[in-house]
Design brief:
about 110 residues, alpha+beta, HIT family, subunit A
């Protein structure tokens, strides 16, 4: 199936934030949630480029993880990242863990 680039761009600029959609269990975002503590979630990337590609996010809408979270909230997210990474490394052969912060003001409305 060919990827519909125009539809993707339209959805990303006018639709809900994909993480917020996952948090609200939107059927259009059927990612498998592997961790949920009520404040944070971790889920398998639907279009993962590598096995074990997991995303961790606070359950509140955040566009900039460093500026939008206070120090306590930021450290709490990092604790979840570590917990999920250790669990992942125990189940999937990994050479290392990479961290990447996603977020944009280019689109995606808060539901």
């Amino acid at each position: 199936m060919e990827f519909d680039t125009d539809s993707y761009i339209r959805r990303s600029q006018t639709g809900p934030c994909f993480i917020c959609a996952i948090v609200h269990r939107d059927p259009g975002q059927p990612e498998e949630i592997v961790y949920d503590d009520g404040t944070h979630i971790a889920f398998l990337a639907r279009f993962a480029s590598l096995p074990g590609y997991v995303l961790v996010a606070p359950k509140v809408h955040v566009e900039h993880v460093v500026r939008d979270l206070d120090e306590e909230q930021f450290v709490a997210v990092m604790r979840v990242v570590r917990r999920v990474a250790l669990a992942l490394e125990a189940s999937v052969p990994c050479e290392r863990t990479y961290l990447l912060s996603l977020g944009s003001q280019q689109g995606n409305e808060v539901p």
